[in-house]
Every structure is written in structure tokens, then in C-alpha cells.
Specification:
Elements: H1 3-24, H2 30-57, H3 61-79, H4 111-127, H5 131-154, H6 161-169, H7 172-176, H8 183-204, H9 208-225, H10 227-246, H11 252-276, H12 278-281, H13 289-306, H14 322-338, H15 348-371, H16 373-382, H17 384-403, H18 407-413, H19 417-431, H20 443-448
Helix pairs in contact: 1-2, 1-5, 2-5, 3-4, 4-5, 5-6, 5-8, 6-19, 8-9, 8-10, 9-10, 10-11, 10-17, 14-17, 15-16, 15-19, 16-17, 17-19
Length: about 450
């Protein structure tokens, strides 16, 4: 990096700071203004650390693929504007003779890789191709989506603002791995925008055109970048939206019929969509799911046998059957949510994650013991928002844990699940009155009262 890299970084920190300060002035709630300001500062600091980490401590795809190829594409367009069409063509048709490093040519066939390269090239035009400033752009997009996700929960349960802030705004690995040139900031930011827009479209029924446009844009990004996130998330979120409205129905028999019809219909739809998208889903298609899990595990085992890296075993033999996958599930979920353990960490990145994983494990045990097994399970089943957060985090944890037997990869892949899991734990405590303080409304008042006025975006 040169002095100009630092210069451009801080120039854009000032620009983004000015833009977001104008947004904060529209908030009537001083607490929201405080959280927004603090989260922006944390995100800027995380982006700076991410740049240093990728360049000097543990280089990854950011410095080996996304930045060099995106910057090279940007230079090609500057040299010959006719190359502008490369931004709009699929990655599979990209001329390998135009790749900056021939070893990266194969990555262009994966449209998710090329989408990140394409976005890097576009950001280069605003940053003069400076590494740190481009990382900041990615971090700021993630910040806007994470903020929308925070507001989605806050607008329904404002008294749990501290718990939501811990889970979404200040969680170390979640903040760090969504702060640079990677797929994760795009997918996390898009997921936040998707949740907020869909909820307001179907529940608040406001700003119809704006929310539809938002859903189309971020839905496309999620489909291209990490389709398995939206495929695993959408059924759970849709179920939440339905159950939230079902709770307004007084007749219990009608409730049961509606819920059963939706569950059966959603399962049928999910299997149909997953089957039709088998080519796009690749390893996560429903029809070849168990075979793909097996092939992923075999690949990681071979790599682990050749090196002393961060490869690990789930301790469960997987033979490719659905029954075997069911036996594998507990170990896979535990690996995603609670590993690496401290003694399994061989790098600084995994060591820091192991402390966070230990804290999440201890917090889970605390909630389980404090509430009790029966109330723990009943709260999940009876409260739609808990069911949605908990089930999404577990389903996502299952497939990430089953297919990712490398801690370096796992700590990045699991970040969409961890915030939702923590939120579900805080909700379980709250709905069982374990978080209730003087001055908080009762559960009945909260669930039956209308949402507070929506602050400007």
C-alpha cells in the first residue's frame, strides 16, 4: 500500500461519515442515532483492520483473486472503453486471455466469483483502484444491510435494543468478516435489506414500489453470490410472516389448518424450487444433497491429509444416506455454532473466533439451564419470531458444518447464522421473563400493540 491508499481511505471515511450523519439527523430517537454512529465507527475500524490482515497477516481470496482481477478489469476498460461490455457478460464467457493471472482463469466460470470481481471493478472507478477504499465500500454496503436487520428487530421489540446490538452490530467475527472485498459483505448486506423490505412490504404495507425494487435487486445479488443462503432463509422467514398474521386469528382450529397448509405447501415448493435449480445450487440442490455432502467431506479429508492446516473431522462417518446425514446433524451444528475450540486454533484468526465460540456455547448453556428444557422448547414452537431465527440458524449451521471441514473457511461461512442464533437465545430469555426489567411492557402488550412509527431510512 502507498500513502495514496491511506489518503483515499480517509477521504471516503469522511464522505460516508457526512452522508450517514445526514441520515442520522432524520431519526427522532436518540438511541437509534447513538447506535448508528457507533456502528459506523466500528465498521470503519473493522475495514481498516481487514485491509491490514489480508495484506500482511493472512492473505486470502481478497488479495489473490478479487482485487487483482477486479483492478485489472478496471484497467482494461480504461485502456479501451470497448471492454465495458465485459461487465455485463457472464463470467463463463470471459476471455481467459484477458485474465491478469492465468491461475485465476477457472474462477471466472463461477458467476458468484465474477460478480465480486465485477463489483470491485466498478468501485475502482470511484476510488482510483485503491485497495483500502474498495474494502471500505464493501464494508459500508454491509453496514447498511446490518442496520436494516437491526431495525427490523428493534421496531418490534425496542426494549431489547442492547441484545440486538450485541448480536448484530458488535459481534466481533460478524463485524470483521463483513468488512472487505469478499462475498460475505454482499450477502450479509443483501440479507438485511431483503428482510427489512419484505417485512415492511407484507406487514406494514408501505412504500410498495421502493420495497419491490429493493427485493428485486438484493434478491438477485443473493441468488448470484450465495444462493444457498436465500434458499435456506426464505422458507423460514415466509413462515414467520404467515405465523405472525395467524396469531391475530382467535379460532385455534383455523390457526392449525392455516399453519399446516402453509408448512406442507412451503415444503413442496422448496423441494420443487431446489430441484429445478439443481444446476445453480450445485452442492446444495435437494436431489443430490447427500452425495454432495459426501464429496465435500472427502475433498476436505484429502486436503487435511496433505497438510497441517485447519482441517478437522466431525467424528461421524457419513455414507451418503439421509439417515447418516441425520446422525451427522448434531456434530455439524455444534461445529458451526461452537467450534473451533480453543485447543483447535492454529492461526490468530481462528484463535479469536474460538473465544467467541466459547462465549456462545456458555451463553447457550446459561439460557437452557435458566429457562429449563420444557420452556426452552415451547418458546421456540410457540413464538413465530423465535421459531424463524432458531430454525434458520440451525438449518444453515447443519449444511455449512457438514460441508465445510476447514476452520478458516468455516468461520466465514457461518456468519449469517450466528446473529440469528444469538437473537433467538435472547428472545427465549425475554419471553420467559428472564430479561424483564422495571418499566418494560408485558409480553401481551408488546405482541398486540402496533409497531412504533418508522423512522426515515
Amino acid at each position: 500500500m502507498t500513502f495514496f491508499d491511506f489518503f483515499m481511505f480517509f477521504i471516503y471515511v469522511g464522505i460516508f461519515g457526512f452522508i450517514f450523519s445526514r441520515t442520522r439527523k432524520k431519526y427522532t430517537n436518540p438511541m437509534l442515532r447513538s447506535y448508528h454512529r457507533t456502528t459506523f465507527i466500528v465498521k470503519v475500524f473493522a475495514s481498516f483492520l481487514f485491509s491490514i490482515f489480508q495484506l500482511y497477516i493472512q492473505p486470502g481470496d481478497t488479495v489473490a483473486l478479487f482485487f487483482p482481477e477486479g483492478h485489472h478489469l478496471y484497467q482494461l476498460i480504461l485502456q479501451d472503453p470497448a471492454h465495458l461490455d465485459l461487465l455485463f457478460n457472464p463470467g463463463a464467457s470471459f476471455d481467459h486471455g484477458l485474465v491478469s493471472a492465468q491461475g485465476n482463469a477457472g474462477y471466472f466460470a463461477d458467476e458468484s466469483n465474477f460478480m465480486v470481481i465485477r463489483i470491485v471493478a466498478i468501485f475502482c472507478f470511484f476510488t482510483f483502484g485503491k485497495f483500502m477504499a474498495i474494502n471500505l465500500f464493501f464494508a459500508m454496503f454491509a453496514f447498511t444491510g446490518i442496520w436494516r436487520l437491526f431495525r427490523f428487530f428493534y421496531e418490534q421489540y425496542p426494549q431489547l435494543h442492547k441484545q440486538f446490538a450485541i448480536s448484530l452490530l458488535y459481534l466481533p467475527t460478524f463485524v470483521f468478516w463483513s468488512s472487505g472485498m469478499m462475498k460475505d459483505p454482499i450477502s450479509i448486506g443483501a440479507l438485511g435489506w431483503f428482510t427489512y423490505a419484505a417485512f415492511h412490504l407484507f406487514y406494514q404495507k408501505d412504500h410498495f414500489a421502493r420495497h419491490i425494487l429493493t427485493l428485486l435487486i438484493v434478491g438477485y445479488l443473493l441468488t448470484v453470490i450465495k444462493i444457498y443462503i436465500i434458499v435456506s432463509y426464505l422458507p423460514m422467514f415466509a413462515l414467520y410472516l404467515i405465523l405472525k398474521n395467524v396469531t391475530l386469528i382467535q379460532n385455534k382450529a383455523v390457526k392449525v389448518v392455516i399453519i399446516l397448509c402453509f408448512v406442507v405447501g412451503s415444503i413442496f415448493s422448496f423441494v420443487t424450487v431446489a430441484s429445478s435449480l439443481q444446476g445453480a445450487l450445485g452442492g446444495f440442490a435437494a436431489e443430490g444433497l447427500t452425495e454432495s455432502v459426501s464429496s465435500y467431506q472427502s475433498s476436505y479429508q484429502k486436503q487435511g491429509g496433505r497438510s497441517e492446516g485447519s482441517y478437522f473431522s466431525l467424528g461421524v462417518e457419513f455414507d451418503g444416506s439421509v439417515g447418516s446425514l441425520a446422525k451427522l446433524a448434531p456434530a455439524a451444528i455444534v461445529a458451526t455454532l461452537f467450534r473451533p475450540y480453543i485447543w483447535e486454533s492454529k492461526k490468530i484468526s481462528t484463535l479469536l473466533t474460538s473465544f467467541e465460540s466459547l462465549a456462545i456455547m456458555l451463553f447457550t448453556l446459561f439460557v437452557f439451564v435458566r429457562v429449563g428444557p420444557k420452556k426452552f422448547l415451547l418458546t421456540i414452537l410457540q413464538k413465530p419470531i423465535v421459531l424463524y431465527c432458531f430454525c434458520f440458524s440451525l438449518v444453515f449451521a447443519l449444511f455449512v458444518g457438514a460441508t465445510t471441514l476447514n476452520f478458516g473457511t468455516l468461520i466465514r461461512y457461518k456468519i449469517p447464522a450466528i446473529p440469528f442464533y444469538l437473537v433467538s437465545m435472547f428472545f427465549i430469555l425475554y419471553f420467559n421473563k428472564k430479561l424483564k426489567k422495571v418499566g418494560l411492557q408485558s409480553e401481551k402488550t408488546i405482541t398486540e400493540s402496533p409497531l412504533p412509527p418508522i423512522s426515515p431510512a
